Amino acid sequence: MNNQDFTTTIVVNSTPEAAYQAINNVRGWWLGQIEGPTDQLNDEFSYRNHGIHYSKHRITELLPGKKVAWLTTDSSLEFVEDKNEWTGTSITFDIAGAGNQTEIRFTHHGLVPSCPCFGACSGGWTHFINGSLQSFIDTGKGKPM
User: Is 145 a domain residue?
Assistant: First the structure.
């Protein structure tokens, strides 16, 4: 059976190292209130979009120019019945050079089509990864809105 975790891939006009730095600058590409450090192993940060979404993430893996991983340790999604749906899921950014560009494969492990938030959350991630993060890496300006 195919892995059904939500995954999207972008190719950016940047080096793997610059892409890695941009991913770790979460405030540059993700809309909402972000508290805590977002670029140190084992640190935790929270994301809040008031009245819609709260999540807390522990940074579990940092391989410069190659990978960033987070574990979602707490969540509250106000638009679904199981508000803690993200708790215990993980998020990875796999980074690889592709000629003079860089490919980033984003996966939200545990966000699968059977989850009630899949439609809204996969749409949100598509916007933030394929739109805002890609723009942030390529131009220095994210498009979080």
Answer: no
Provide the token pair at 92: 């990875």
Q: What distance in Å separates the CA atoms of residue 15 and residue 125, rounded to the nearest whole number?
A: 22
Residue 120 is predicted with a pLDDT of 87
In angstroms, the CA 145 to CA 140 distance is 15
Query: What's the domain range around 61?
Result: 17-139
| Confidence category of residue 1, pLDDT binned at 50, 70, 90 | very low
| Domain membership flag for residue 9 | no
What's the number of domains the chain is made of? 1
Contacts of 135 (CB under 8 A, 6+ apart): 29, 141, 142, 143
Give the integer Cα–Cα distance in Å for 28 and 5: 25
State both tokens at 57: 């993430």
Q: Rounded CA gap, 9 and 98, in Å?
A: 12
Within-domain flag for 144: no
The answer, yes or no, to whether residue 20 has pLDDT greater than 90, is yes
CATH number of the CATH domain containing 106: 3.30.530.20
